[in-house]
Structure formats: structure tokens, C-alpha cells
Amino acid sequence: MYVKNALLSTAAATVKGATATIGAGAWLCVAGVASAQEPNETEAKAADKGEIETVLVMGKRQGSYTIITEDTLKLVKMPGALGDPLGAITALPGVITPAAGGEPAVRGSSPSDNRYFVDGMPAGYIFHEFNTSIIDENIIQDFQLYPAGFSAQYANATGAVFDIRLRDPVQQDFTTTLTASMLRSGVLFESALSENSAFYLSARHGMLPLFLPEEDTPDDDGIRIISAPTDSDYVSKFLWSNSEKNRLSVNFMGATDKGKAEFSELSDMVAENPDFAGEAEIQDKFDSQSVVWDYQLASGAELHILAAHYKDEENLHWGDNYFQNIETENALLKTNVAFAVAANHIINIGAEVDNMDYAFKVRQPLFTCTEFDADCQANRRDVIDVTLPLTVKQQSLFAIDQWQATDALQLELGLQWHANDQTDQTFIHPRGSFALAVSERVTLKGSAGSYNRLPDVQYSMPELGNPKLQSYQSKHYSLGLEGKGLEGKGLEGKGLEGKGLIGRALSDWNWSLELYHKTFSELPRTLTADEPNAEDIYANGTEGEARGIDIFINKNFSNRWYGWVALSYSESTRTNTATDQTLDYTLDTPLVLNVVGNYQLTHNWNIGFRYTAKSGEANTQIVGVKQNPNFAGHYLPVYGEPFADRLPMQSRLDFRAERPITVFGKEGVFFVDVINLLNRKNVSEIVLDHEKVKETGELHLVKNVDMEIFPSIGMSLSF
Fold first, then answer.
1. Are 237 and 597 in contact (CB under 8 A)?
2. Is the distance from CB of 267 to CB of 223 less than 8 angstroms?
3. Which residue range or ranges hold the TonB-dependent receptor-like beta-barrel domain (predicted)?
4. 35: region left, alpha or beta (phi > 0 left; psi from -120 to 50 alpha)
5. Are the beta carbons of 5 and 377 closer than 8 angstroms?
6. Sign of torsion, CA 517 163 454 304?
């Protein structure tokens, strides 16, 4: 996948630059659902008085599934998110977005170690190729991120789990919601169908091609846009329920990403691979369907059954009639039953059966390379032209025992059995967690567990890699404290008696501090030509560690403002077991700080900001140039010690202001967003200046930067 990632990275830099130029003139967004208001003042006062009790839920998430949760709403409204709650997850501790773009890495794991669920159904991806999520913010209800130590119900993941719940359709008259913006337009239909049923259908389409038309000549980076990257997505949910004990939902979801460009000899890709010159086209899509039944038995046990089907197509064409066409089809059945053996003791037992069919049609030079290799270009091999099928079957069973052992202690013990026929392995994974209230306001928490996932198919497919690769494995450990602020009654005897305002202010704060340690084993490494079994291309020969501390300080809405501070310090390394060489992981970013604030400035105006600062990613320094052995007259970079250097520190300030409005009798919100308000030139990569290198034969470098200042205005209206 090296070629696709490189093409996407190059194209993304071009699109970001063009989008920023358009954005400098500001664009108007017309959305169809009014922004939800700040947390209710009555609720805030009740919380101050201790009238709202925190309940430890031992089971599935509860609440009104038609209404977005308060925490998810904060992500929707966060400056820089542009209404995309999943795009705002980088403001949470432990989450890193690669400098060159792509899916997030969590707590030192690889992005490919993550697994995504939407309403319990596995999703191939939840982000479009250029980082916006595939889910309309108007239909998301809740979002949970499990960065480590997740429970036994989640299989085939070693990094993090993203668990997204779509809201349920509302019992209402037929409503049509139209959305339009420079980036995307869409429609949302929602209606009750009967006394017991309702549905909605959301469909969106990217509008960027209207503002980035086909170009006649390549730009300074050697790229000519033929069809600007665009995306589309749809989500439909039908719900039937004759009581709270009996629910049936049918979900449909899909997304498409495509774009077309011409790469000339001035582009980095063509400068190093002249046979890549010409038009390149990307078209990815997936469609999924699922049926979910939830039923509460007379005994009180809760039964959950999910059947799903998923089909994904990745199509890439470029250069000298090269192509990657990869089709994936997944059929899935999951079920579990949860029942109480006592008032404070719940058992949850479940199973998952998964059948995955792959079809590879590939014609391209073979680059033998993993994310642990600093120089993929050095591992270019001959052109391969193959058609390859592969079927993978996997099964898992789990049992979870949730026990409120005492008023202060909650325990969760889990066991997972996982087997697959790709590596012909079987695993038994113990997992557990505890929560101990050490005082009225402080809780000690911890978790531990072992995990595995299947090897990446591009490394294990015959002729492209090594079908004898074994599953990747990981162990997670975490220990931390969670606390909530002092209440007014807790100030007695401290010189603050009677100062209820201070007591209420302190009670609005909560915090957490968590230490974590992950180990990784059986990760792939590239075999060198002089090693035994070099014809296998890859072998399980990389180990790793990630450790760090995440600190989160949160202020709930009161006294006209809310906000949070997220601070992460970490280190992530990988070790080649053949050479015993230990290197920083390519996405290792030791220090990340996020500060988010929102303030009700006046009765009408609400303003907010997000400030992000992070140390640079691990980087391999280019120390010289050399003649390209495959193409005379062309040059390749000479790299120093792998991942021993770092990109410069990055920082960004985003701003948002909004106020309620009324247009033609319809209530809504007008808002102003400015991304990268200080116009910081954040370096995303340092590459050869191939034009100067070709002229002089000497080393010349150029720094590519991320998106510059991007202002926008918009409004949302409810029809």
C-alpha cells in the first residue's frame, strides 16, 4: 500500500493548499439542524446541590437514544472540528493524527491496529480519504473511545476501539432537512412510519470539484487536478419497537471517495519513479447492511443479535498502466446475552463469526516495505501482475463477569477465545478491570489484557508477501485516578463556609490521570536480500513498546463557560529482533497539549477556541543524494539513522463564534470558524527539492507545510 499512501499524501497537500486559498475568501455553510444549546442551567444547579447522582452502569449505555449526548455535543461544537465530532477526537488525550494525514494513532499503536464499530457493526473505515468522517453530525448520538485495555467483547484489535452509536429516528411528522456548503451538501429525511416505527435517511456529497475545476497545467508541485477529490456518504436507519423490551433496527451505510490528477516530472513521486508519470485515479467505496434485534426476556436477561454484510472496493490506477484493485466482502454474525445472577452481579456471554473474502488484482512495481522501514523506495522490485483470491474465517467467544463487589469496588473479569484459519492460530485472552472508590471524590482504576489481530493482508497475500505470517499480538496495562471537584459542604472548616459560589464552581471540575504500558510482538519486518528465506519478503520479527501518561482536566458548563485541558506524554519504540536495533516508532510524538474553551460572551454571542501544541513526529533525516539505480539521470535521497530526527514542533489555534438567528421564522445559528488563526506554517514533511537536485546533483531540501489559515462563515437552520 506504499504507492497509494504516497499518492494520497501528495494529493492531500495540493488539495489543502487550494482549499486554504478558497477559504481565505470565506465560504457560507447552510446546514439543516439547529445547534443544540449549552447544558441546561437548571441541570447545572441541580448538580451543584448534589441532586444528580452518579450511577455506575454495569451493562449497555443507557439514555435517550434520539438525543446527542452532552460530551459528543461538545466535540461537534469544538473550534476546528467544523461540526464533525469524529474529526475532533484529536483533542482527546492519547490521540495523534499523523502529520501527513490519515487515520489516528492511539497511545503508541499503529492506525491499522484500531477497530471501528457503528451501532455494533464493524466498519471498514469511518474517515474519508481526506480526514472528514463518513457520518453526518446530525445523526450521531454517542461516541466512545477505548484507547487501551478494552473488554473481551472486542476482537481482532490491538490498538484502540472506536464505538459509535447512531441516534434513533424520532417519532415525528415527515421532515426534510437540506444542507449545503462549499465542502459538502446533503439531505436528511426523517419520519414516523407507524405508532411503533420510524426511519431516517442521510445522504451527503462533496462539493469541492465546483471550486477546484480541472486545471490546464501542473502546479509548482508537478500536479494537475483533473477531478478534485470528492466524497459522498449515506446512512439509513429504520427502527421498529413495540416496547422498551423489544427493538428491531435495520441499518444501511456507505461511502465513496474519488479523485483524478496528473503527475508530471516535477512531482516527488515521478522524480523518484519516472514510470509513475501520467494520470492517476483513486476510487474507493464501501456499502454495508445490518439487522439488529434487542429483546429483553421475561427473566430480565437481554438478548442482542446482529447480522451484517460489508463490501469494500479500493481502485487505484496510475502511471505506466499500473493498478491496484482490491475487493473485500465481509459477512458477520454476532450475538450476546446479558443476565443478572444477583442485584449487583451481571454475566455477559457472546459469540462472533466472521467470514472475509479478498480479491486482489494488481499490476505494479512491488515495494517491499512496512511502516517500520524508513526508505521504502530502496526496496523497489520488479513489476508484478497477479490476480489473487483469499478467504479468511475467524470466530470468537467471550464471557464477561461484572460484579459490584462492595459499595466501593467494581470488578470486571473477561475471557475471550479467538481463532482464525488464515494463520491457523487459537488464542485465549484474559482481560480485566477494576474501579475502587478510595474516597468520596477519587476513584482508582486499572485494566489489563492481552490482544491479537490478523496480519495485514498486503503483507500476507501470496506473491505480495508471506502467507505464513502469524497474528500480531499486544498486551495492555493501565492504572489511573479519576476525581471530581470539591462540593460546598466539603469546604466546612476550611475558612470558606457559606461561600456557596466557590463550592459550586469547584464542583464543576473533574479530572483523570492515567499511566499506560503496551507491548507489541510478532509485528512484520522486511527481509533483506542476504537473509535466509528472503523469498518470503516479510517475517514476524518486530517487537515494540509504548508507555505514557494522559492527564485530562475538565470544566463542565457553569458561570457561562466550559472547557478542558488534555496533556499526553508518551514514548513508542520498535525493535528489530534480527538486529536487536531499537528505533522510535514513526508516529512517535512525545508531548501533545490541547486546551479547549467555550464562553457565553453575551446573551447572543458564544465564542470558543482550541489550542494545540505538539512535539514533532519521529523523522528520518535526508543527509545526501544518490543516483537512482533504476532510472538514469534521476536521484534518490540518502537517509541517516532511521527515525532519529524529529519534525519541528507544531501548534495551531482555532477559533469559533456563534449566535442564534431567525430566518423566515426558522430558528438557527450563525457561526464563524477560523482554522489556524495565527497562520502557523507547520511542517508536515521534509523532502528533496528534486528540481534543484537534478540541476546541481547536490542536496537541496524543501519543507512541506500543513493547511494555513482557513476562515469560514456559516449558519444552521431547522426546517
1. no
2. yes
3. 276-619
4. beta
5. no
6. positive
Among 110, 84, 107, CA closest to 95: 107
Cell 537534478 found at: 694
From the list 330, 325, 233, 328, the residue with the least C-alpha distance to 282 is: 325
pLDDT digits (tens, 9 = 90+) for 475-520: 999 999 999 875 444 444 444 433 454 455 567 899 999 999 999 9
CA angle 238, 242, 248 (to 5 degrees): 35
Run of H or E residues at 348: strand 345-367
Q: 412-430: buried (b, 16+ CB within 10 Å) or exposed (e) per residue?
A: bbbbbbbebebbeeebebe
Q: What integer pLDDT is reported at residue 291 of this predicted model?
A: 96
Do 299 and 272 contact (CB within 8 A), yes or no? Answer: no
* Sequence-distant (≥ 6) Cβ neighbours of residue 573 within 8 angstroms: 544, 545, 546, 582, 583, 584, 585, 588
HEC string of 584-632?
ECCCCCCEEEEEEEEEECCCCCEEEEEEEEECCCEECCEEEEEECCCCC
Residue with cell 487536478: 225
Q: How far apart are CA 103 and CA 314, in angstroms?
A: 16
CB-CB contact of 655 with 703 (8 Å) = no
Mean pLDDT across the chain, nearest whole number? 85
The reported pTM is 0.86
- How confident is the model over 160-190, as pLDDT tens digits? 999 889 999 999 999 888 777 767 788 889 9
Calpha distance 455→471 (Å, rounded): 5
d(Cα 7, Cα 5) in Å, to the nearest integer? 6
Contact 567, 592 (CB under 8 A): yes
Residue 79: what pLDDT? 83
Say which amino acid occupies 143: F
Q: Determine which helix (DSSP H) or strand (DSSP E) holds 512, and give its type and residue range.
A: strand 509-526
Range list of H helices, 155-299: 208-211, 268-272
pLDDT, tens digit (0-9, with 9 covering 90-100), for 238-269: 999 998 899 999 999 999 999 999 998 888 88
Question: CB burial class (10 A; 0-12, 13-18, 19+) of residue 237?
Answer: buried
412: which 3 cell numbers?
Answer: 470486571
β-pairing verdict for 246-263 and 223-243:
antiparallel
Q: Are 350 and 301 in contact (CB under 8 A)?
A: no
Q: Is the distance from CB of 34 to CB of 669 less than 8 angstroms? A: yes
pLDDT tens profile 584-635: 999 999 999 999 999 999 999 999 999 999 999 999 999 999 999 889 888 9
- Under 8 Å between Cβ of 58 and 339: no
Residue 243 CB contacts under 8 Å (≥ 6 apart), including other chains: none
- Cβ(288)–Cβ(313) below 8 Å: no
Of the candidates 72, 125, 349, the one whose C-alpha atom is nearest the C-alpha of residue 231 is: 125
